[in-house]
Design goal:
This is HNH endonuclease 5 domain-containing protein. It holds the Pfam family HNH_5. This protein has 13 helices and 14 strands. The protein is an alpha+beta fold. The strands form 4 sheets. Strands 1-13-12-9-10-11-8-14 form an 8-stranded antiparallel sheet, with helices on both faces. It has a two-stranded antiparallel sheet with strand order 2-3. A two-stranded antiparallel ribbon has the order 4-5. The longest helix has 35 residues. The relative contact order is 0.12. It binds zinc ion. Zinc ion binds next to helix 1.
Length: 454
């Protein structure tokens, strides 16, 4: 009844820019999914250098308003970025990777007293910051001379001995300017590029002229194109979020017979979804094109498939429009939820996952000590959640969940076993951690959503 086939790329046939008609190939390549959201595949066979330059100066980074939060909390780097995006706030702290607060001004100073001894004071977000200071030219500037090897050693000693003081950081003020016109132009631009890989005639033709002029020449208003939709058949997001989590960007193009429209849906990092009307009043048979790229910077052509529906069911609704256009309130609520709930919650989740992985890498055999380290990670996780959201889980509940999920068997029968010789032991360990983590997050997420007012 339904035909599914891999989408066939036709972009090698493109000879002119899809916006202005200038001759291709361009000297510079254009990313299909923006590099600042983790996209890595680029081509010079869709867009000319001049249009590319224009987009990079006007709209390309517009959606980082949302994506930087997801990338920060999950520790994702963009292709051109050496570091995980930091969130710059209007408060005393910025937010570094995994949603951790970091003082905007780290205070470190060294000076020589009259008796020749050193005075060294510091108050920083982490020891790492103090070491960074020590390895910069700042001590030298403070002191007016270089540090001797002994002095450097003495400072290192002081850093090692320093005790970490835990402070509860209040939510930081954050002013966000939402330029919805630029954001929707960036969304529509990405949709057209994906469509252009598959159906170059459609993206050059009359049917999509209006949206092209909106994207490239700012003609018209975003409200004419923006819609909120409900995807009536399982979407790429439903299928992929289990497997890839936040590590993908995707585009779905719907040729909707019943609506006489072509609608594109862009999903950023598995979290943020935007839909745009690409063409209207068009009599088209039902079809769906999906294009997906993961964020592992492979530079491969994005995966894609094309779904055609047979004539008998050519007019069943594929997608329904809920709002046209979405209300401003929708965007305000979404960004506030991302910044105040998703960022810290997902940041802690990602940090836990990363830490479990790190201990796993260092451990060769099952020891009581390593099991205690895992348990401590979970206890820190729930205690941090309590600090952030005021939702408490008793430590003994966490310990008993771990025990039930496999830790008690591991303690009783498998201590001392080498993972290489007994991969099943390592499997039990990972299963116990994953299961406990899933149980905790499901339980807590529901509580958090209930506690946080709309
Ligand atoms: Zn052009």
């Amino acid at each position: 009844m339904v035909g599914l086939r891999p989408a066939r790329y036709l972009f090698q046939l493109r000879k002119s820019c899809l916006y202005c008609g200038a001759t291709l190939p361009a000297t510079k390549k254009e990313h299909i999914f923006n590099s600042c959201w983790g996209g890595s595949f680029s081509t010079n066979k869709l867009i000319c250098g001049k249009c590319n330059e224009y987009f990079s100066q006007t709209i390309d980074s517009e959606l980082t308003t949302y994506t930087k939060f997801v990338m920060n909390s999950w520790g994702i780097k963009g292709e051109r970025h050496k570091q995980i995006p930091e969130i710059v706030t209007d408060g005393e702290y910025n937010i570094r990777a995994y949603a951790k607060p970091k003082l905007k001004t780290e205070n470190c100073s060294v000076k020589a007293s009259s008796d020749g001894s050193l005075e060294f004071n510091f108050s920083c977000s982490s020891k790492e910051e103090v070491y960074k200071w020590l390895n910069s030219d700042k001590p030298e500037t403070d002191l007016g001379r270089t540090l001797t090897a002994e002095e450097r050693q003495w400072i290192k000693q002081r850093i090692q001995e320093a005790k970490l003081e835990k402070i509860n950081v209040e939510p930081q003020p954050l002013f966000i300017n939402l330029n919805l016109s630029k954001q929707y132009r960036s969304v529509a631009h990405t949709l057209l590029k994906c469509l252009g890989l598959y159906d170059p005639d459609l993206v050059r033709g009359d049917m999509t002229r209006k949206v092209r002029e909106f994207i490239r020449y700012e003609q018209g208003n975003w409200e004419e194109f923006a819609v909120t939709v409900n995807q009536l058949i399982p979407s790429v997001k439903d299928r992929l979020s289990q497997k890839l989590g936040v590590n993908y960007n995707s585009v779905e193009i719907y040729w909707c017979c019943s609506l006489e429209k072509i609608i594109g849906v862009l999903t950023l990092l598995g979290r943020i979804q935007r839909a745009v009307i690409l063409a209207e009043n068009c009599k088209v048979p039902n079809a769906i094109l999906a294009v997906v790229e993961d964020t592992y910077l492979t530079r491969q052509i994005p995966k894609s498939f094309f779904l055609e529906l047979e004539q008998q069911i050519a007019d069943i609704p594929l997608i329904e429009i809920l709002f046209s256009p979405p209300k401003i309130e929708f965007f305000r609520k979404e960004i506030s939820h991302i910044a105040s709930v998703s960022l810290p919650f997902e940041g802690l989740n990602a940090f836990l996952a990363e830490s479990i992985y790190k201990i796993g890498e260092q451990t060769q055999e099952l020891t009581l000590k390593s099991l205690q380290e895992y348990e401590k990670l979970f206890l820190d996780f729930v205690s941090n959640l309590e600090k952030l959201f005021g939702i408490s889980v008793e430590p003994k509940v966490v310990s008993s969940q771990l025990a039930v999920n496999g830790f008690s068997d591991l303690v009783q029968y498998h201590i001392g076993k080498n993972f290489k010789e007994h991969p099943e032991v390592q499997d039990t360990l990972l299963t116990a951690c994953t299961k406990t983590w899933e149980e905790l997050t499901n339980q807590l997420q529901m509580k958090i959503e209930r506690e946080i007012p709309e």
